[in-house]
């Protein structure tokens, strides 16, 4: 039962967020064979000024054992 949490900066419309969530759910279902009813996706909006402390440090720098795709930036 995969649950995906997407953290992004504010500014996306509800339609864009729904499109992102559906695309991610489809990718999960295709790559980790599971039923659609088993997949959930949530989206958390993080302001640019909070990004480093709320996302980059704990999830990217602090999560090397769980991070499978590194970003191409270094805000520090």
From TrEMBL:
This is Putative tautomerase protein. Signal peptide: none annotated. Gene3D superfamilies: Macrophage Migration Inhibitory Factor (3.30.429.10). Residues 2-52 form the 4-oxalocrotonate tautomerase-like domain. The active site is at residue 2. Keywords: Isomerase. One of its GO terms (molecular function) is intramolecular oxidoreductase activity, interconverting keto- and enol-groups. Pfam families: Tautomerase. GO terms for cellular component: cytoplasm. SUPFAM superfamilies: Tautomerase/MIF.
